[in-house]
């Protein structure tokens, strides 16, 4: 009986695990739908108006990165020594989608990250201003 129950649940466990590659691909689709208009397809943004995502020191703070995607950014921020004082509205993404687009950004245009953001991490990022 135990063997059949284990076999029954095994596919569910394997399916629930996701890879960075899968998350990255979903994140790319989301980026193309929600982010590319401002941050551009090359992640460079527009100097002085829209911050770059390429080699952006802002991305080093993973919690701030997730917070900005989940809740938006209002007011000044400094990215790579340049002040940006605009607004980025929240995109209305679900927590799993925020995780996917974060993984895409953290691993594109020469950016590399040794962490994989998942839905559980995003759920723990509260709306309280950082």
Q: Can you summarize this structure?
A:
With 130 residues, the protein is mainly α.
Describe this structure in words.
By secondary structure, this protein is mainly α. It has one domain: Cytochrome c-like domain (Cytochrome Bc1 Complex, Chain D, domain 2), CATH 1.10.760. The chain has 6 helices and 4 strands. Strand 2 and strand 3 form a beta hairpin. It starts with a helix and ends in a 6-residue tail after the last helix.
Helices and strands, with pairings:
Blueprint: H1 2-16, H2 20-34, H3 36-39, H4 62-71, E1 73-74, E2 77-79, E3 82-84, E4 87-88, H5 95-106, H6 119-124
Antiparallel strand pairs: 1-4, 2-3
Helix pairs in contact: 2-5, 4-5
CATH class equals: Mainly Alpha
Strand residue content: 5-15%
H and E string:
HHHHEEEEHH
Name the poorly predicted regions. Answer: 1-16
Mean pLDDT, to the nearest integer, reads 88
Features:
6 helices, two-stranded antiparallel ribbon, Cytochrome Bc1 Complex, Chain D, domain 2, single chain, mainly alpha, disordered N terminus, 4 strands, two-stranded antiparallel sheet
């Amino acid at each position: 009986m135990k063997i059949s129950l284990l076999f029954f649940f095994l596919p569910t466990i394997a399916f629930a695990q996701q890879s960075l590659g899968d998350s990255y691909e979903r994140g790319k689709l989301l980026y193309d739908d929600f982010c590319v208009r401002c941050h551009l397809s090359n992640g460079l943004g527009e100097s002085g108006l829209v911050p770059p995502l390429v080699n952006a020191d802002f991305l080093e703070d993973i919690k701030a990165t997730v917070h900005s995607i989940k809740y938006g950014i209002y007011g000044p921020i400094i990215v790579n020594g340049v002040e940006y004082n605009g607004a980025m509205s929240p995109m209305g993404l679900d927590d799993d989608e925020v995780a996917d687009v974060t993984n895409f950004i953290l691993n594109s245009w020469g950016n590399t990250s040794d962490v994989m953001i998942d839905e559980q991490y995003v759920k723990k990022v509260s709306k309280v201003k950082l």
